[in-house]
Design a protein that fits this description.
Number of helices: 13
Oligomer: single chain
Number of domains: 2
Number of strands: 9
Distance between the termini: 27 Å
Helix content: 40-55%
Order of helices and strands: EHEHHHHHHHEEHHEEEEHHEH
Structural class: alpha+beta
Length: about 325
């Protein structure tokens, strides 16, 4: 999308329009409901120049005495420039959010507290990779109100671009497991997968850093999950990844326990994982398939490769 492209809300879903209006209400009408701009850089154009003039006029009126001095005028100009940058950042992030809002969502249920906290923490975010996380986080909350904790917002606000890059790389090794309560996300750092992970630059030090950020946990004894019931006969486990779906068949009385490695997403990490776009890493599906094959357990096929969104439906 180009910097100067305008998104007309008449062309998007009603929930997306409600989301924009919800943020208007929550932060004092900071957005125009009919027009959202996604701008990568704060370059001055006609609309920005006009907005700057209006803001300068308001600031000068509120601080006329200070404006009589040269230093006062410089201070006001700085404040105006910062507010314009904040506006551009928030509109860019909200543009990302409305692209990911489900047509069945009800953004009207988003709390004022969430809106205010998100706005205060992301209005100065200019890096595209971080804006992507914030936009997706807003969409996640819109699609499922009260699903994003305050702790998750705090953690995201502490990340820099390199942190976001490391986390997105880590998520390329995470898979979704369908459960009665929805989709649980597990990192599969199995023996054959671990060397591939390290080959992408995610060695122990990088994983330790993600742990210090509150995104993952370590356990030298390893983690596992169980699935299914105690009924006899074959049971199927579907593991959904960025490339597609692995189908694992547990035959007869095979143990319903799956080892996933020595790291696990924290609650905040899992919430942010739903707001990220991991990339395909060559060889991960094949390596994981070989590790999942065991006595009384087989992998039917990792194909066809499907997008994560398609596999969830």
């Amino acid at each position: 999308m180009s910097e100067n492209n305008l998104i007309n809300l008449g062309d998007v879903s009603k929930p997306a329009e409600i989301l924009v209006e919800r943020f208007c209400d929550g932060v004092g009408g900071v957005f125009k409901p009919w027009q959202i701009r996604r701008i990568a850089k704060a370059e001055a154009d006609a609309e920005i120049t006009k907005a700057k003039g209006e803001l300068e006029k308001q600031k000068l009126a509120q601080a006329s005495e200070m404006a009589q001095t040269e230093i006062g005028q410089r201070a006001i100009s700085r404040l105006v420039d910062q507010e314009i940058r904040n506006q551009i950042n928030m509109e860019s992030i909200l543009s990302i959010a409305i692209e990911s809002v489900s047509k069945s969502s009800d953004p009207g249920n988003i709390s004022n507290q969430f809106v205010s906290k998100v706005f205060e923490n992301c209005k100065t975010v200019e890096e595209e990779e971080l804006q992507e996380l914030w936009g997706k986080l807003i969409a996640s909350e819109a699609n499922s109100p009260k699903s994003i904790s305050q702790k998750t917002i705090d953690i995201l606000s502490s990340l820099d671009t390199e942190d976001a890059r490391l986390f997105n790389s880590y998520l390329s090794f995470c898979f979704g497991i369908k459960t009665p309560g929805g989709m649980a996300i597990y990192p599969f750092l199995t023996p054959s997968v671990k060397p591939i992970l390290e080959g992408t630059g995610l060695k122990f030090e990088e994983l330790q850093h993600l742990s210090s950020l509150g995104l993952i946990n370590f356990n030298t004894m390893g983690y596992h999950f169980t699935f299914g019931d105690n009924q006899k006969g074959d049971q199927v486990l579907r593991i959904v990844g960025v490339e597609g779906e692995l189908i694992v068949i547990f035959h007869d009385d095979a143990p319903r326990q799956v080892q996933v490695g020595d790291t696990l997403l924290t609650r905040a990490g899992e919430q942010l994982a739903r707001s990220a776009r991991p990339k395909v890493v060559d060889g991960v599906f094949e390596a994981l398939s070989s590790d999942l094959i065991a006595d009384k357990r087989s992998v039917v096929s990792p194909w066809p490769r499907r997008q994560y969104e398609d596999a969830e439906s």
